[in-house]
Amino acid sequence: MSTRCSCAFYAGYSLTQIAGGWLAARVPANRVLVAIVVTWSAATVATAAAGPSLGAARTPLLFALRMIVGAAEGPNYPAQVELQSRWIPYRERATAWAIAGAGESIGTFLALLVGPYLVHSFGWESVFIASGAIGLLWAAAFAFLGARSPA
């Protein structure tokens, strides 16, 4: 992926963090979280379709898809903080945030461990398809099991 596409992710990400936090405080944060995970997961799966077969149209499409992924991931942390502020007792929030951060690191480690196998066995597109599919499955489970608050 080109440097321009990496910049697209961070441009989208930086544009939506504040708005995402504002939205998560006014709309149930669990709904915001599901919507953004579905959005970035779908854009991640679509990245696999934006492969070499598209020729010259590939770069603008990849740029747009990476910007969508970044824009959707921008509200992630604000939505998580909003949920944790409702679910986790005040004195336990630092520990809960550390556990969530560790889970993110473990997920990154697993992706880096499995990614080369997927690329070698099924092609580069498989990493995007698998990552997006896992996100969509998580969003479906969270949509049914997650709640805005313990009440």
Description:
The chain is built from six helices and no strands. With 151 residues, it is mainly α. It has helices spanning 3-26, 29-49, 58-73, 76-87, 93-122, 125-145. Helix 2 runs antiparallel to helix 4 and helix 5 (93-122) packs antiparallel against helix 6 (125-145). The radius of gyration is 17 Å and the shape is globular.
Broad structural category: mainly alpha
Helix content: over 70%
Order of helices and strands: HHHHHH
**Tally of helical runs:** 6
Broad shape: globular
Report the mean per-residue pLDDT as an integer.
89
Poorly predicted segments: none
- What Rg, in angstroms, do the CA atoms define? 17 Å
Number of strands: 0
Strand content: under 5%
* End-to-end distance: 45 Å
Largest sheet: none
Topology:
Elements: H1 3-26, H2 29-49, H3 58-73, H4 76-87, H5 93-122, H6 125-145
Helix pairs in contact: 1-2, 1-3, 1-4, 2-3, 2-4, 2-6, 5-6
Characterize this entry briefly.
The chain is an all-alpha fold. It has helices at 3-26, 29-49, 58-73, 76-87, 93-122, 125-145. 82% of the residues lie in helices and 0% in strands.
Features:
151 residues; single chain; mainly alpha
